[in-house]
Write a structure and sequence with these properties.
alpha/beta; 10 helices
Length: 278
């Protein structure tokens, strides 16, 4: 699989790079970011995959989260893909919450979206295969994300037992089937049968999860989307009913922004590093 490096910057002793490749799964050209800490020059390391939220690309996390210093401290490679297929022939929609920048990490089944919008398979299969073929990794994986990407991290981990050592999320859309962002996207990508939506909804997936991977979630109590779009109490109830381990931390004063992520990303990377070293 051919990849082309298009950005290369020194950062905390390592390298923050961005690569371009042709995705067979998505049928378009995609970018993904890789942070290689200095340890990667001499040894194979575990990987933490980060999934970003609505309107984002691979750039937001690598330029705003301040994660590289912690990746260097713990010897973890960071991989951040884009949030949707891209290109002139990829269908889009008006508004920020559907189409480009809003792939929702599902495999679309409805035309015209189904031609390109297969972000679950890209994140769970094609991208890890690309990383493991081209970078000094040891096969241990973790996954995290923010908002729509927090939803993505939860469902990708729940739908692929045994693939990840750990999972966490910031301000995730835990029940997209029950909130406006998810209802709009799922109706377009998956159709009007709400029974089909349950396969892409973390709250719905918890009861039948084949692996009880502990969930670490940070949520700001001043988040402007807390009551309408995020609703972490639904995940809390589902985990309690299923006996699924959950650490839900409501952080006072924090909103939905990357200032929130900056404040706690070090703790999340430390959480993942412990699991990746186990």
């Amino acid at each position: 699989m051919v990849i082309e490096r298009i950005e290369h910057r020194a950062c905390f002793g390592g390298w923050q790079d961005v690569y371009r490749h042709e995705s067979k799964v998505l049928g378009c050209t995609m970018n993904f970011a890789v942070y290689l800490p200095p340890q990667a020059a001499s040894q194979c390391l575990p990987v933490l995959y980060w999934l970003s939220g609505l309107t984002c690309s691979e750039q937001n996390f690598i330029s705003k989260a301040g994660a590289q210093r912690y990746a260097t401290a713990h010897g973890v490679i960071l991989v951040a893909p884009d949030t949707s297929p891209r290109g002139d022939d990829v269908v889009d929609a008006e508004g920020y919450d559907l189409g480009k920048g809003a792939g929702f990490y599902v495999n679309a089944t409805q035309a015209p979206w189904s031609q390109h919008y297969r972000m679950h398979d890209y994140v769970a299969s094609e991208l890890p295969a690309l990383i493991e073929a081209n970078f000094p990794v040891n096969g241990a994986r973790a996954i995290s994300g923010h908002s729509m990407g927090g939803h993505g991290a939860l469902i990708v981990a729940l739908k692929n037992p045994g693939r990840y050592r750990s999972v966490s999320a910031f301000s995730p859309i835990v029940a997209p089937s029950q909130v406006p962002w998810g209802e709009k996207a799922f109706a377009a990508y998956l159709g009007d049968d709400r029974r089909e939506w349950k396969a892409w909804d973390a709250v719905a997936l918890i009861a039948g999860a084949l692996e009880r991977l502990p969930l670490l979630i940070d949520q700001g109590d001043a988040d402007e989307f807390l009551a309408t779009q995020l609703r972490p109490e639904l995940l809390q109830a589902a985990c309690a009913a299923a006996g699924h381990p959950l650490e839900l931390r409501l952080q006072p004063g924090y909103d939905h922004s990357y200032y929130f992520i900056q404040s706690f990303i070090g703790e999340h990377i430390a959480h993942h590093a412990r699991a990746l070293d186990a």
